[in-house]
Each structure stands twice: as C-alpha cells, then as structure tokens.
Amino acid sequence: MTINRRDLALSTLAVPALAVSTLAVSALTTPVLAATADEEAVAKKVEAFRLAQIAADPKALGALCADEVSYSHSSGKVEDKATFIANATDGKSKFLSIEYKDPTIKVVGPAAIVRFHWVAEQEMAADGKKVPTNLHILMNWQKQGDDWKLLSRAATKL
C-alpha cells in the first residue's frame, strides 16, 4: 500500500474534524442531561424552601441555606443566615400562603439562577392584620458537594 502526501494530508484533516464533531455531539447531549437532573434537584430545593418558609421551620431553613447566604428583602434589608432564620421564625407573623409563580431555573456549572413571581399573604401576630406581598424574586443556589444550597436571594416589589 502506497500513501502519498495528498492521502496523508486528507487523513490528517479528517481525524481532528471527527474529534471535533464527536466533542460537539457530546457537548450537546451530556450537559443537557446533567442540567436537567440538576434543574430538577434545584426545583425540589426551591419547593422545600417555600414549604419551610410557610412552616417557619428553622431547622429546614438552616439546612437549605449556605452558611454564607445573603438574604435581601424588598425593603433593602440584607440578612446573614442567622439573622434571616431568626427573623423568619420569630412568630411575629405567619404565612397564610406563599406561591412561587412562573419559576425559571437555569443551571450554570455549580450555580443555579432561579427567578419567580412571589405572591403571598401573611398575618401579623400583634394585631391579626393580613398583609399581601407581590414580589419578583431572584435566588442563586450553589452546588456544595452533592447538595444545592441557597447562596443569595433578592426581592423587588412589584
């Protein structure tokens, strides 16, 4: 078998092209499957967070938040983990309902960007007054080991 320069040049070009196309197909399929599993895992954490807020459960909220969490309210008040949990569970008010409408989740590596429309009603313990809230929420979740933790949350009044 005789190999000339042209055959050698063509085979040299074909191998990288094949490798690139294989990588392109792999890049298109593998992350999509991984992102879907991560998106589902984050969605479960977001729902667990909503339920923990309604229940005012300090243990559940603590387990869902990263130690470094930055929790920002629509008033501009920013809380660390201990302050957020203490204020969310102090009994001064209770949530009658919290709905996360039209959620979107985008996983980017070990981070997840979650956005939704928050519609809630809470009752003040002091006077029984019911207070509705209508907000846009941005949450950032971080994968820590095999678990997703809330790293930051920001709220904007609508």
| Class derived from helix and strand content | alpha+beta
CATH hierarchy, class: Alpha Beta
Major β-sheet annotation: 6 strands, mixed
Rg over C-alpha atoms, rounded to the nearest angstrom: 24 Å
Strand order, largest beta sheet: 2-1-6-5-4-3
Number of strands: 6
Share of β-strand residues: 35-45%
Q: Mean of the pLDDT scores?
A: 86
N-end to C-end Cα span: 75 Å
Shape: globular
CATH topology: Nuclear Transport Factor 2, Chain: A
**How do the helices and strands follow one another from N- to C-terminus?**
HHEEHEEEE
Helix share, percent: 40-55%
Describe the structure.
α1 (5-55) packs antiparallel against α2 (58-64). The protein has helices at 5-55, 58-64, 81-88, and strands at 65-72, 78-79, 93-108, 111-124, 130-144, 147-157. With 158 residues, the protein is of the alpha+beta class. The protein is globular and about 45 Å long. It has 3 helices and 6 strands. The longest helix is centred in the first third of the chain and has 51 residues, at 5-55. A hairpin with a 5-residue loop joins β1 (65-72) and β2 (78-79). It has one domain (38-157): Nuclear Transport Factor 2, Chain: A, CATH 3.10.450. It has a 6-stranded mixed sheet with strand order 2-1-6-5-4-3. Helices cover 42% and strands 42% of the residues.
